[in-house]
Amino acid sequence: GENVEQHPSTLSVQEGDSAVIKCTYSDSASNYFPWYKQELGKRPQLIIDIRSNVGEKKDQRIAVTLNKTAKHFSLHITETQPEDSAVYFCAASKNDYKLSFGAGTTVTVRA
Amino acid sequence: NAGVTQTPKFRVLKTGQSMTLLCAQDMNHEYMYWYRQDPGMGLRLIHYSVGEGTTAKGEVPDGYNVSRLKKQNFLLGLESAAPSQTSVYFCASSYSGSGNTIYFGEGSWLTVV
To answer: What is the mean pLDDT of residues B70-93?
Structure first.
């Protein structure tokens, strides 16, 4: 099955700086890559996703890039704010319904 | 719309006891899922369903059973709870499988002692 690895496991950034989280996947047939944000004690919520026919997607301060050849994708958060502090999960799937998740990255934004 | 709701939200079980987690969604979604979340391991798929009356195994199905008798409900059962099943359980649903957004419930915290 699909194996998704996520790095780093923890990330501390100064408010206003950028944060980057990287994920790799094993199955070259995977074509859908969502990112979820989970605040403490809350449910995971989709923040952005990308499909394999697109190399980059941006939504305000959040962007995701995909390198199909290298089988990795990344989440970029610019101008970080305290409310960006959360656990972020990447995931991958191949035209089906079984998302495989990374282990998560705990992001802390220091004021 | 309530979205995806789970009951109960918290439960403490003794080893060997049984229980059922109930998930309900009001978005007319075809697909429903049960995930468990453990520290440092992300979310792992336990079982899923692609429609009323269907169920299938995910990554970690052992020790769990599921049923989808109605489209809006997906039940997760633990027949004989074990301490290794202490976890946070999330139900989720999506309109169809191919790259559509998966919506999660609020989670159910289960402790087996």
So the answer is: 97
